[in-house]
Design a protein that fits this description.
The chain is α/β, with parallel strands linked by helices. The chain has helices at residues 16-19, 55-65, 71-81, 96-105, 177-187, 203-210, 222-233, and strands at 10-13, 30-33, 86-91, 109-117, 132-139, 157-160, 193-196, 214-219. Strand 7 (193-196), helix 6 (203-210) and strand 8 (214-219) form a beta-alpha-beta unit. Helix 5 (177-187) crosses helix 6. The protein is globular, with a radius of gyration of 17 Å.
């Protein structure tokens, strides 16, 4: 496995739309990522971005992407670099239709996977609890899908709390590693090349190395690049 224009198993700091331009055509086997959600204040469906503690993180996102994330440019940019379109992308209610429309327009298969939060914020004035987030799985015909991993791996929902439970860094939207490991097992093979263009504190990259795949990570914030690199360095050496 190689990507001639970028070094494998490295995190690149910067704007993913610019760095993706340096990735070879048809070199990526799978993308698993958690981009910024649309978080306009009128929407109650954000990915935990609305708390005061996340304001600095929001400033960085705003400066790079504006006040909401429009997936169109991103989706078009990754089409070129994927061997077969093969994507898991965390999102919220507001952006679901954007991803589904893209999949339908390109005749890709898609599935909605739901993260059910066991401890949602108890705010329900005029609306239901914000107790779930979504992962859109979009797959082109011919992309890897391993069907031999056992019944329990193929449910389209999983339970996990929000907040500090299970988190290992101070990244405001760090995701649980176990669902990501499951996505990687199902939709890639050993030694495949996996991209996370919004790698944050590096959860997807850690999962990738644990499962004997290669990665390219991209992250806008230098402090999270440092955290992600440290997490990977601290993995047991027998994994490499």
């Amino acid at each position: 496995m190689e990507c001639k224009m970028l070094e494998l198993n490295k995190i690149y700091q910067g704007d993913c739309l610019q760095i993706i331009k340096n990735i070879d055509d048809k070199s990526i086997d799978l993308i698993v990522t958690d981009p910024p959600y649309e978080y306009i204040s009128k929407s109650p469906y954000g990915g935990g971005f609305m708390s005061n503690e996340n304001k600095k993180h929001l400033v960085a996102i705003r400066d790079s992407f504006g006040m909401s994330f429009n997936p169109k440019d991103f989706l078009q940019s990754i089409q070129r670099i994927m061997k077969k379109f093969n994507l898991y992308i965390y999102t919220n209610k507001s952006l679901l239709t954007e991803y589904i429309n893209f999949a339908e327009d390109n005749k890709y298969k898609w599935e909605i996977i739901v993260w059910l939060k066991t401890n949602p914020v108890p705010i329900f004035n005029g609306h239901y609890l914000i107790d779930k987030e979504y992962i859109l799985y979009i797959k082109e015909a011919g992309a890897t899908f391993n069907s031999n991993l056992g019944y329990d791996n193929y449910f389209t929902y999983f339970f996990h709390p929000i907040g500090r439970v299970g988190k290992v860094t101070n990244h405001p939207t760090e995701k649980s590693i176990e669902p990501i490991k499951r996505f990687i097992r199902i939709s890639s093979n050993e030694n495949d090349l996996i991209l996370d263009p919004f790698c944050g504190s590096g959860t997807t990259l850690v999962a990738t190395k644990r499962l004997n795949r290669n990665y390219i990570g991209i992250e806008l914030e230098p402090k999270y690049v440092e955290i992600a690199n440290r997490r990977i360095r601290e993995l047991p050496q027998q994994l490499f």
